[in-house]
Amino acid sequence: MVENHDDLTTLITLENGKPLADAKGEVTYAANFFEWFSEEAPRIYGDTIPSSVPGNRVWTIKEPVGVCGLITPWNFPAAMITRKVGPALAVGCTVVCKAPGETPFTALAIAELAHRAGIPPGVVNVITALDNTPEVGSTLTSDPVIRKISFTGSTAVGKLLMKQCSGTLKKLSLELGGNAPFIVFDDADVDAAVTGAIASKFRSSGQTCVCANRIYVQRGIYDEFSQKFAEQVKNNFRVGNGFEEGATHGPLIHHRAIEKVEQHVRDAEKKGAKVVVGGHRLESLGPNFYEPTVITGMTPDMAMASEETFGPVAGLFPFDTEEEVVKLANATQVGLAGYFFSRDIHRCVRVAEHLEVGMVGINTGLISDPASPFGGVKESGFGREGSLYGIGEYQVTKMVTVGGMGKPLQK
Fold this sequence. Notes:
By secondary structure, the chain is of the alpha/beta class.
């Protein structure tokens, strides 16, 4: 992957639309998963367990779960594949990867590179699908040869796959939808918080499962934060073709994404919010381009408060107290990521423990790392990807007991 960095970057921009700079970063991130799990593979340890029965010896062996069905999304067409394939190969599993219909060529390129790298035929398999995606998913989840499914995508599809897997009791990892709160307390470094919020909200044009979806700003600094945040979005972003020099944001993935973004913006306006930056389609660039948008005066009754936007729209919600904002942040059925900015160490510990999410970023808007466990709680799914916890998702633990080992040595 490192040797073919430029070609993979070009494929991602062609398929996904993200600017070249973002695509380059993704290729590096994706390759890092292979490197990290290759280094973790020699550290797959079992345990020796003291037995309560005299004369017995007990130990455990970590074994590969078997053939794995991997279903990946379009928003990170390289990294979401390597984050699943890496640990599967490290523990000794073979994989069948269902490539996203919107971005199949990156998946096929990675499969070709696996072949060139010397991975035997039949170990890494990629299948493409579009109109027949439900049939492919049904086959992967019902075939008894496949012992594990790992899926990244929407909560609704995750629930369907879980139901389909029940017939053969497959091991499951589900990384599903999010609605990440991003909280800025009045004791925060406002400039740092603005930078963090920009990075979290507008990465990949807001088309990430961990991007800030609800930005809560304490009322004492609300106006200052809103002004600085809006200025950054207005002055530093340029929407365009991902191959164009200076483009910071590309198109959304398809017409459904544009329609949802438009609906959330118009809903907020209708209910009293104010669009201070953007708020319109950029049809002169193409059908799927939308302006990076900032909206102030958000309230909990607006669609953006309860639905994942998955687009370049930042809604700023005012709040008064810590207790209030934690309740607002947790008032959702999903719990993937959450972020907050504060310089009070006691508050940092307290709020991190009370947020109902699987991942917390404190004074940062970027939390992804191959060495860190990635995953959520509630209806954001279960299981972890990346890290030593992620490698365990592709293993089963076998216990071995040997009796008759307690006889004394004979002279």
